[in-house]
Amino acid sequence: MNNRDSYNLIHQALTKAFLEGRAKPERCKLPRYKNTVDELVHLLYKLSKSDDIGNDKHAKDMNRIRSALNTFVKQSAFAAHSDRDYYREYKRGMNIVPDLIEILANCEHLRYERFRAEDPKAPSVEELLSIPVCLKAVRSMSLVKIAQIIYVEESIKNSIALLIPQHPKDEYPMARQMKRHFIIHYGFTNTGKTYHALLRLKAAETGVYLSPLRLLALEVQENLNSSGVPCSLLTGEEEDIVPDARHMSSTVEKLNLDEKYDVCVIDECQMIGDSQRGFAWTRAILGVQAEEIHLCTAPEALDLLKRVIDECGDTYEVVEHTRDTELIYVHAKYNIEEDVEQGDALVVFSKKSVLSIASELFSKDIQASVIYGALPYNTRKR
After folding, report:
1. Cβ distance 212 to 203 under 8 Å?
2. Structure confidence by residue, pLDDT tens digits, 276-288
3. Could you tell me which residues come within 8 angstroms of residue 255 by beta carbon, excluding any fewer than 6 positions away?
4. Can you tell me the distance from the alpha carbon of 262 to that of 206, in angstroms, rounded to the nearest whole number?
5. How many CA atoms lie within 13 A of 350 on its CB side?
6. Which domains does the chain have, with CATH numbers?
7. 207 forms bridges with which residues in the sheet?
8. How far is CA 255 from the centre of its chain?
9. Which of 80, 116, 166, 352 lies 20 to 30 Å from 50 when distance is taken between CA atoms?
10. What are residue 33's phi and psi, to 5 degrees?
11. pLDDT of residue 45
12. Each residue of 258-273: b (16+ CB within 10 Å) or e?
């Protein structure tokens, strides 16, 4: 861009800032016109006083501009600061504001040209004024100050914005480059969702199973190993690497997003809505590198999972699972002393209740295993 183009850009920016595109002052209302003139004169004086006088061409040009400004101010009636004099100038049609803008544009152009000569890394006028916040600032700041302060801040913000994807799915570029296909298994508890998904996992050359619980991950590892499919285990508390295993059973948080798999099974996907751990399911669904992904979920999460997959641009099919036998509810009150039988599982909702019932059973010579979340991992495993 040549000097003339730079000057024109500066002139256009100042005209827009002070006149909003209206070139003639008579189209401005009188009070606003007066304020505009005062602001321009103030900015010009501030700019002219900020330059050191030298013997170079720029210094001579700046002296010429200052001289023209002083003459202009002395000869213009608006220097008297009275509404009547402003109105007289306004009625006579003197182009006070455009004349001031022309002086200011020359001043800014010369100063910024010298600034860029001293700092080759400084942005061009075109680059500077292409940023809206910088363009807006020309009414109150010099281009040099805008480049030193606002432009630097905006450049840093823009650089950071480029590093942070606008959409969560874009945080996983490797997965976005793949053509992934999802099979959503939905249904109520004990309808065979995980069972059917694991059949595909066992048949694959490589695969990963993701579980919400360490014990469930262990159970699947043992299932695959007993079926002749070597499988390792990775949880927050334990790592069991089986030699030559090409399958992994893990808690969902431990998923390795850099690894590629043929098949991935993500269990209990309704937990994507959990306020504490839901992020792990979101991360796994968005980022796992597998061509075939099985999602096992309760019905209430089906629509959400479809929307997530659609956002990723992947394909999916839905498989509904139902119970082969009817679930029978027994509404009669359960009496531990009379109704408990060998093989029964008693589920309660607090550690205190677990220990209380276990103590009651022991007192009646009924042996019972106790399990709750705070037990050591090895104890629960046994």
Report:
1. no
2. 999 999 999 999 9
3. 208, 210, 280, 283, 284, 287, 288
4. 5
5. 3
6. 3-163 (no CATH), 178-320 (3.40.50.300), 336-381 (no CATH)
7. 247, 263
8. 21
9. 80
10. -60, -45
11. 63
12. eeebbbbbbbbbbbbe
- pLDDT single digits (tens) 353-366: 888 888 888 888 88
Question: Mind listing the pLDDT tens digit for each residue in 123-160?
Answer: 999 989 988 888 888 877 888 889 988 988 888 888 77
Q: Is 51 helix (H, G, I), strand (E, B) or coil?
A: coil
- Check if the beta carbon of residue 97 is closer than 8 Å to that of residue 40: yes
Q: What is the pLDDT of residues 7-54, one digit of tens each?
A: 888 888 888 877 665 544 444 444 555 565 666 666 666 665 655 444
**What is the token pair recorded at 243?**
């030699």
Residues near 293 by beta carbon (within 8 Å), at least 6 away in sequence: 180, 181, 182, 183, 263, 264, 265, 266, 285
Question: What distance in Å separates the CA atoms of residue 285 and residue 73, rounded to the nearest whole number?
Answer: 69
For residue 313, is pLDDT > 90?
yes
Q: What are residue 302's phi and psi, to 5 degrees?
A: -60, -50
Contact status, residue 287 vs residue 256, Cβ threshold 8 Å: no
Q: Are 361 and 368 in contact (CB under 8 A)?
A: yes
Nearest Cα to 26, choosing from 36, 41, 17, 11? 36
d(CA 101, CA 43): 10
Judge whether residue 247 has pLDDT over 80.
Answer: yes
Contacting residues for 96 by C-beta, under 8 A, at least 6 apart: 25, 37, 76, 78, 89
